[in-house]
Design brief:
The complex is a heterodimer of chains A (about 230) and B (about 375).
Chain A (H helix, E strand, L loop, with lengths): L3 H34 L5 H13 L2 H12 L4 H10 L7 H26 L2 H9 L4 H28 L4 H7 L9 H10 L4 H32 L3
Helix pairs in contact in A: 1-5, 1-7, 2-5, 3-8, 5-7, 5-8, 6-7, 7-10, 9-10
Chain B lengths: L1 E9 L2 E9 L4 E5 L6 H9 L6 E6 L2 E5 L4 E2 L7 E4 L11 H11 L9 H7 L15 H14 L4 E5 L7 H17 L4 E5 L2 H7 L2 E6 L2 E6 L1 H5 L2 H7 L5 E12 L4 E6 L2 E6 L8 E7 L4 E3 L10 E12 L4 E7 L4 E7 H6 L7 E6 L9 E2 L3
């Protein structure tokens, strides 16, 4: 069976992935909204910026996070002095790095579902007396929901395995930042760790596959629920 | 009084419209597709911007660009029935109906949910989702939803255009009962003349963004500008009259028009009712002497008011039959042979069956 360290790594991965999704989804909705319904200005640039984590080496993302969210970085320093929050070397930092890496994935799925939702319906709601926030919460958001949930589940599954940005930003601390892939990497570096590495790889494999299946299932069911 | 003034540019297309009519009543915007009907309706709803616009419903100014007044669409309380219904797919019919009702000011709820459900026969649909409705049912729900938002004005943008003929006939009576039930001004966009004839009290003929003519149906139906829009086979005077007698056996109703009587196929009417009948110009025969021994039942005596060249070979003759005008389409050769001229006394003959399909109970 699994050792205590292995169970720790799995639990930590689940928690980090969950927190990363919770942090990224609201921003992803805003960005997707701007990309689809927002003004033309800045759209191309924003689109490119959002997709950067897909093309940059994860180490670069980790490094950029260190620069901005490190204890002496502009945001990291402020967070530490004002709220006493430290991201570096913590699981919260791991969640942040994961959120940044999976962000393009979430934005993409939400964006597609928003593009499918007819803007004419928002117009109709408008003539029926619904203001901007009212329209967003009663019409646009429910119609986007399949994309939001599918994106969240996919990002969760992908977030379980985030490696490069995490290890660069928050290092590899057992019980704090040593997630599944980091534990797997450590096991491979340790003499006699082969069996542990194999078990962790198998867990990663099943979690990833389950995540993708659940995402597809949710997307289908939700699409039926919103009447499409 | 409803005032809609608008000038707007969309690329090379220019819209310039002024409408001032008494309320309530149904104003029909009639013209070919691309003439600016939908643009105008969008401006009235506030969804589209115009360079200059005035939208004033019975003294409530919703937009007046000269005075920098522009109420947001969500606060105009103008009901909009779209061609493609635009029901919310994630809500069932009842929730769709209540969407606008819930957002209407509490003190302004004159139109009740139960009444709308009864009027539009929506009871069996309430728990269904929009995707499970037929096209006609969808438009009925869209109508109900717009009505329940307690609008000051109802915009109907070709609400029947996406329906086939049978479905159209299924929804039209609901529009008529809506017109008769609520004293609410409406703007009805259409490119089907029979819908307009059936519903409208004021007609605005639009072409390429401009008003060619506007006025009552009788007046517009004999306007030469209509000919280009409806085509040669659909041109014909619309006359209003009172039903004198009905014959339940033959289904014919005798309608008093001007100084004569014409017989039309009209099964659901009672004596005394006001009706509108379109007499197609191509089906009217002119005689310079009162004819005898004919099977034609409909003969109206009158004088020629105007002769308009229709094309190279034909004339449209306007015959004043007393309180009404009938159009006759005659060949130039016949026109010359009979030496037709303005002021001449003539008899117009029409077969009962060739009076356009059916007559309609007049609005109001």
């Amino acid at each position: 069976m699994l050792s205590a360290a292995e169970i720790d790594a799995v639990k930590l991965s689940l928690s980090v992935a969950l927190r990363s999704v919770l942090a990224s989804v609201p921003f992803a909705i805003m960005v997707a909204w701007w990309l689809v319904r927002g003004g033309r200005r800045g759209r191309v640039l924003l689109d490119a910026f959002v997709h950067l984590p897909l093309v940059l080496p994860p180490v670069v993302i980790g490094y950029l996070l260190l620069l901005t969210f490190g204890t002496r970085g502009p945001i990291g320093g402020w967070l530490l002095s004002t709220f006493d929050i430290r991201l570096i070397f913590t699981s919260a930092g791991a969640a942040l790095a994961t959120a940044v890496m999976t962000f393009p994935l979430v934005v993409r799925t939400i964006r597609v579902s928003l593009e499918e939702a007819d803007a004419g319906l928002e117009e109709a709601a408008r003539t029926l007396g619904a203001g901007p926030w009212d329209r967003f919460f009663t019409i646009s958001l429910p119609l986007m929901l399949p994309g939001v949930l599918a994106g969240a589940v996919t990002a969760f599954a992908a977030g379980l395995g985030e490696f490069g940005a995490v290890i660069t930003f928050v290092s590899n601390i057992p019980g704090e930042t040593r997630t599944l892939p980091l534990a797997l990497y450590t096991a491979l570096q340790t003499p006699g760790g082969d069996a542990m590495a194999a078990r962790l790889a198998a867990i990663s494999f099943s979690l990833g596959l389950a995540g993708l299946l659940v995402a597809e299932l949710i997307a289908r069911r939700m699409r039926r629920m919103v009447g499409r | 009084m409803l005032k809609v003034h608008a000038t707007a540019r969309r690329g090379s297309f220019a819209l310039d419209v002024r409408i001032d009519v008494a309320t309530p009543g149904i104003i029909a915007l009639f013209g070919r597709s691309g003439c600016g009907k939908t643009t105008l309706v969008g401006i009235v709803a506030g969804l589209l911007r115009a360079e200059h616009a005035v939208v004033d419903i019975d003294g409530v100014v919703l937009e007046d660009t000269a005075r920098q007044v522009r109420i947001a669409p969500e606060r105009r309380r103008i009901g909009y029935v779209f061609q493609d219904s635009r029901l919310f797919p994630h809500l069932h019919v009842l929730a769709n109906l209540q969407y606008g009702e819930r957002r209407a000011p509490a003190g302004e709820r004159r139109i009740g949910l139960d009444k709308v459900i009864a009027l539009l026969d929506l009871q069996p649909l309430l728990r269904r989702r929009p995707r499970d409705l037929s096209g006609g049912e969808r438009q009925r729900v869209a109508l109900g939803r717009a009505l329940l938002s307690q609008p000051r004005l109802l915009l109907l943008d070709e609400p029947l255009a996406s329906l086939d003929v049978a479905r159209r006939e299924e929804v039209l009576p609901y529009l008529e009962s809506l017109r008769d039930e609520f004293a609410m001004p409406m703007i009805y966009v259409s490119h089907q003349f029979d819908e307009v004839m059936r519903l409208a009290s004021h007609i605005v003929l639009l072409d390429n963004g401009r008003v060619l003519a506007q006025g009552g149906i009788e007046q517009i139906s004999v306007n030469p500008a209509l000919r280009a829009i409806v085509g040669v086979d659909s041109i014909g005077a619309v006359v209003s009259g009172t039903i004198a007698v009905t014959d339940p056996v033959t289904g014919l109703a005798a309608v008093r028009v001007g100084n004569g009587v014409i017989n039309v196929n009209l099964s659901n009417a009672r004596p005394g009712a006001q009706v509108r009948v379109q007499v197609l110009a191509r089906d009217v025969i002119l005689a310079t002497h009162p004819p005898e021994g004919l099977s034609v039942r409909n003969m109206l005596a009158g004088t020629i008011a105007q002769i308009v060249a229709d094309d190279a070979q034909t004339d449209l003759v306007h015959v004043d039959v007393g309180d009404a005008v009938v159009l006759a389409r005659v060949t130039r050769a016949a026109s010359i042979a009979l030496s037709l001229r303005v002021g001449m006394r003539v008899w117009t003959l029409v077969k009962a069956v060739s009076i356009r399909g059916h007559a309609f109970l007049a609005p109001g």
